[in-house]
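The passage that follows is intended for readers who have already worked through the single-chain material. We present the inputs for a multi-component assembly, then the predicted structure in tokenized form, and finally a short commentary. You are encouraged to pause after the input and sketch how you expect the pieces to fit together before reading on.
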Amino acid sequence: MASDSSPGNTNDGPSSPGENASSPIGNTYSSPSSLRSRRRARSSTPSQFATPSRLGASNSTPSAARSNRGNVPATPSHTDEAPPSSDDGGEDGADDTTPTFVWGTNISVQDVKSAIEMFVKHFREAKESSDDLFREGKYMASIRKVIEIEGEWIDVDAYDVFDYDPDLYNKMVRYPLEVLAIFDIVLMDIVSSINRLFEKHVQVRIFNLRTSTSMRNLNPSDIEKMISLKGMIIRSSSIIPEIREAVFRCLVCGYFSDPIIVDRGKISEPPTCLKQECLAKNSMTLVHNRCRFADKQIVRLQETPDEIPEGGTPHTVSLLLHDKLVDNGKPGDRIEVTGIYRAMTVRIGPAHRTVKSVFKTYIDCLHIKKASKTRMAAEDPMDVDNSLRRVDEDVELDEEKLKKFEELSKQPDIYEKLARSLAPNIWELDDVKKGLLCQLFGGNALNLASGANFRGDINILLVGDPGTSKSQLLQYIHKLSPRGIYTSGRGSSAVGLTAYVAKDPETGETVLESGALVLSDRGICCIDEFDKMSDSARSMLHEVMEQQTVSIAKAGIIASLNARTSVLACANPSGSRYNPRLSVIENIHLPPTLLSRFDLIYLILDKPDEQTDRRLAKHIVALHFENAESAQEEALDITTLTSYVSYARKNIHPKLSDEAAEELTRGYVELRKAGKFAGSSKKVITATPRQIESLIRLSEALARMRFSEWVEKHDVEEAFRLLRVAMQQSATDHATGTIDMDLINTGVSASERMRRDILVSSIRDITLEKMQIGGSAMRLSELLEELKKHGGNINTEIHLHDVRKAVGTLASEGFLVSEGDRIKRI
Amino acid sequence: MGGPAYDCLTNPSGAVRFSFANALSSGYDPASSHGKDWGVVDLFRHYFSDESAISQVPILDSSSIKWVQPNTLVRFRGMIQDMLGNEFYAGAYKDDATWRTNKYSDVSQFPTGSSSDMQVWERRLLYCVPVPGQNQWTECSSAELKNRFLELTGQNREKRVRVDEEMTDSMDSNTLEAGLNGSPFKKLKAEEATSSASESQVPRTDGAPQRSVLPPATSAESLPCLVKVYDSPESDLKLNEVVEFLGVLTFDPNTMMDMDSPDDNTDAFSEAESVQMPSGKVPRLHCLIHRKLETQHFLHGSPLLTELKSPQMFREIRDSLMKYLTGLLGNDHIAAELLLLHLLSKVHGRVDNVAVGKLSLNLTHLNKESMSIFGTQLRNALKSLLPFTQSIPLTIEYLNTASLGPKKDYGTNRLVPGVLQVADGTHLILDETELQPGTLNSVGVENANLLKNLLECQKVEYDFQYYKMEMATDAQMLIFSEGKSNIMPADMVVPFQPSQVNPMQVITPETAQAWRCYLATCKSLSHSIGQELQQVLENDLVAARQTDRSLGSQDLSRLLTMARMMSVSYGEATLSLEHWQMVLELERLRKERLN
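Having made your guess, compare it with the prediction:
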């Protein structure tokens, strides 16, 4: 079909006038605009557009179109409009015999019309075509639906058009005004053939073009073409009523004229009364409430931040919305617009006929798609993780990208590579980064039929010396994560983190306001300065971190809010610098109940290590004296990383393989056994059931990184390694050097407890030996001396604070009293 | 190419038309060219290939606007403050059988739209303002040019009206040449001429709304300019760049008519630029050629530029400048040395959030009294040494009220400048000595954050209402404070210890020129490091870190920046051991003072 408009031919559009000398192209703008008239309702060219619009033609109301239907298909396009100049008379005369062409092109109107008819009637989606050929096509069905609900438009997916007839698609994009007008006519024909009494105009709305233009790349060659672009609405005008049909009344005799239709943005007031008996001159006056108006709105669209090149400001473009499209978006919405790019001349003043040499451009909208709305519709926000990243929120993954990801995921070193790409400017801390990567990918949340559910989110605590770039890591993760909330412990209150009840100042009703944790549902809540948080605020976290809900019971509101968030917290050791002589718990100074809820606790200690220092020095020297960019290793850029992560989170749900499960059991048992070492009879709890959950989550996250549907054995091994690395730092008993989960859970290790017991008993011995009941007091330092002398069963160094603690225990037993620095036996 | 048949200076439009006609005859097809250049740029570039030819062109500013003629060639030096997007215009049209062009002009010379064939081309609109904080010495005196210009037209100032008439006539002959009906054009010209004449008589003191849009930093005398750029790739001109545009000056009479009779139809569609920017206030410049300006360009024909080659020269000027700075700082040698390094710093690389090469300085132990002595002197000295300087008083009131960050106003579709929208290389003085205890409101907190972010990352967040965008900025920041500033954590903190108050030193213009030139040259020097020294540096850094665990990567980075500055201050392109040790010594002295 339409063989005469092969790609080569379609090229000589209005932009290259040289070839078609016979067709009067006029200027580029006037030519299509005369054809625009066929797009009935859409052809509402606002009056200030100086382009010679020929709106008179739009009196081809549905009925007119219908009546024309019997004739040669081309008639509706030409019969009802007079040629703008005598030039085209020759072409017009050929009405019935030779095919009619769209102006300035060699697109045959008939061909296009039949192509559209074929498309509408016969298009079937690929998947349904096979099973029943006799079912109605997709668009026939939607036409019937439109008739049923008395709708005014049908949406046509441009992809469907392309699939069915690429040639039609090309024509439609290149000459949208003409082709869409024919499309409308075809639709009306079909509609009236189904239901003769259907009165409304049915328009076609094209969406989902194959190519989307960026606002920056719009250029003069796009004028009068169909384009699609994305952007954000920044301003919308109020709704402007635009007159379509005017009714006049004679002041003399009261005769009402027939509706007069807007022509070229103007209404010609009848100079005389149209009634034969009256014919009074200049007596006609407009009757407002019998005129017909249509809605119009002008909206400004701005580029989304990710399209703006470095050192540029965002571009904007005006949109013209009509009828139903009006108020379809409000400022702040991200939308995808399909429309026709138009340019209009600017008149110097209303009274001047001269025009400036400058054009104002705008987009005549055909279709608006709200980016956020479609996303909500596509996914159930409650169950599916719509973790589209903040950086590029509505980047939909096209196939090319997907392929790239697949390739990436196949790389053997993808895990290392991802870890490298994470916060590349933060030096070292590779294992911490790997842990954070696991947190980003997350495990699978599990909801059992019994109602029990297991969280998939991984919580991480970073404890470390000041200046070890913890906060930078936090900031980085915050920037990367969906709905990340960043709070500082010092500035957060309990209600600020969870939710609070407030009285609405206007209605007096109590309303629930979400706090940071609730707001970061499905995201990562980053809490800096965790140690400086008030206790009451911290205690709120218990529920969030395991049950993943926030329960509120106050002011008559009892509610449980979802807070399925990963917590990434960082804290300084209690004495601002890590004191290796104190236990980890004493250093971290956090309640053990809370600590056990963190899957990974990293101790980031600034150990004087020459090797690391040297690498750091090298890095910095390279930064300064070489090309700064080349100093970076090969890594993924942040946008790739984020979309990789979000794709994985959304689409990959790995399961445990048997092998992995076995390894998990074996490792866990080993971990539990690890407490028994060197024939020691001490019972040390090394791992808790919480740890095995953590391990499962971690190995799931690791599998996700590879886009693997199965958790393999090596994932589990790596999870164990991560846990061990984190734990070795955080749960090393400095006395014994083994992993000791007791340390995390109670704050005191078994051996430490033993040592303390020994200390207490020896102090008891000493006091029994040296002091009388009610006798003279003894200084603690003296006691320490005694203890050192005593030696015996205490083989490690004793510090004053150990003694003080032991004394405290004895005092609570009522064995002695301590007054400041002195103790007395009772 | 032979002698030009037109005068590029006074009749650039004629030159454009002439070359267009030439290009047409040699096969240039406007219909398929998309407005690509047909040789005009080369023509002008050739004409203005050397500095002396460029200096013939008057610079457009608030004083010269009174006498420069529309449709002549002017230069505009300014910072790109906002980008107003692209504009489509009728680039070429067929008049009977010949193509005509509208490129480099505002108004279609063919008034009615009756031409049968028209090509739409596009151009970029840039809103430029004089560089914020630009110092006096950078402006060239245009007095002599003015005289020359008036000589050129054979008229003088008193016969103003006649000048205009003559101009109009000459324009008419041009238009007639082009085979057009000149009368409407002539009328426009006349109107324009009178308007520009009246413009020159009325001092610009009227409180137009547009005035309030301007940043407080730029003086009321500053003259913005709407530059229309052709054939330039987008990546070529960026926001906040300091550029010199050479092109055709036009006043757009149409927009003035818009003002007379506001057209309610154009409300939402018109970009509002014509409403906000009446051409009487904002001249239009159709850019033919442009170049980015470095500090060197502001040093008018300094012979030193070429002389400043030998290390000996560098050392001499460095010594004299150091002497001056030391004197200014009450003989505090260390502070002066650090100040010099600070003045030479610039960001020369960015890796993620780290701006390599920044070196902010915080002089502590200053109070109000000493500020009034040293601070003022220093401020004036810097003004005479650096092209762009600004000072920001850090008072509660200022922080709470000032708009530091630029903000997009969607009502006018313009970027409202903030104080921190500065050109690269701007020097900022932040005076914290006046800070009193008080409460910061939300604006104040935001402003403080902006400043801190600028100090730490050399980035300023631009507020686009629906989102924020970080713009890389390169500003040298000098902070005066009583104690170590916590709001503004600078790279180098040094307690200021003056030993005496020196009287104001008088410097000759030549010395000042030499110093400016020295600073500019040093700043632009490239720098590298030898393999062996790299090893030494690494060892030293490791050793420093082993002894003092509190040294973070930032401190090490600062040491290297200081080393680089030290080296370039002697005009050397590679770091030497001697300079590295000087830096270590300087750092030791600084540390000593802190304790």
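Commentary: The radius of gyration of chain B is 27 Å. Residues 304-508 of chain B form a domain with the Rossmann fold fold (CATH 3.40.50). How closely did your sketch match?
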